[in-house]
Amino acid sequence: MATTTDPTFYFTIEKPAMAEFKERGSKFVAFAYPIETTDDFKKLLQNLKKEHPKAVHHCFAYRIGTDGNNFRVSDDGEPSATAGRPILGQIDSKAITNTAVMVVRYFGGTLLGVPGLINAYKTATTLALQVVPIIQKQVEEKYSIHFDHTQMNEVMMVMKQYNCTIITREMQLFCHITAGIAKSRLQEVLYRLKELQQVDVEKIK
After folding, report:
1. At what angle do helices 113-130 and 84-93 cross, to 10 degrees?
2. Nearest in space to 202 (alpha carbons), one of 155, 136, 142, 143
3. Does this model's pTM top 0.85?
4. Domain region containing 189
């Protein structure tokens, strides 16, 4: 299990993973994904529903961010608290965030009952999270940076030096990038950018 008391870092899964669990004819297929935003999640869920149209349930849970407030669970028609909560419980037991797990169920003809369902969704999630490495990542703040194209080299040098994440970039006469800046290096990066001429830096809420 990953744990950290350092607010500048968090743990998440390295890449998507999949695992399958069978119980009395029913098949539970768990898909785990690293995500950054709820929009990321919505797209993944839409795709999963297209890929598994014959599944009777598409249950899920996700947790985003480090404050503990951004999470969601869904039983998608299963009895209340038999799917989404057990899935979230496994995400939390690994102390990871920015992670979504979706479990699709193909019904096998036998009702599993509440304890059986809780166990099946929990086990499928556990198996998926067991096969993927957990990595430590820096907590980043998002900033919008506008600058003249003549400043591009200096701005990009600062981005590279402090391992900032470039989320979007528009490189024209006037350039604009959206960047994730590590919380632990934020003051240094902002100071360096403010030293440059004609560079506007704005925090994204």
Report:
1. 40
2. 143
3. no
4. 139-203
Assess whether 164 and 126 both reside in one domain: no
Alpha-carbon torsion (84, 85, 91, 97), positive or negative = positive
Please state the φ and ψ torsions of residue 12, each to the nearest 5 degrees. Answer: -150, 180
Do both 159 and 198 map to the same domain?
yes
Q: What would the DSSP string read from start to end of 18-52? A: EEEEEETTEEEEEEEEE-SSHHHHHHHHHHHHHH-
pLDDT at 2: 53
Name residue, tokens 């951004």. 70
Q: Which structure tokens are listed for 91?
A: 């995400």
Three-class DSSP category at 62:
strand
Helix (H/G/I), strand (E/B), else coil: 131: coil
Q: How would residue 68 be classed by pLDDT, with cut points 50, 70 and 90?
A: confident
Q: Which of 136, 152, 184 is the last residue of a domain?
A: 136
Q: What is the mean pLDDT of residues 88-102?
A: 97
C-alpha torsion 70→74→80→82, nearest 10:
-100
160 — pLDDT class (breaks 50, 70, 90): very high
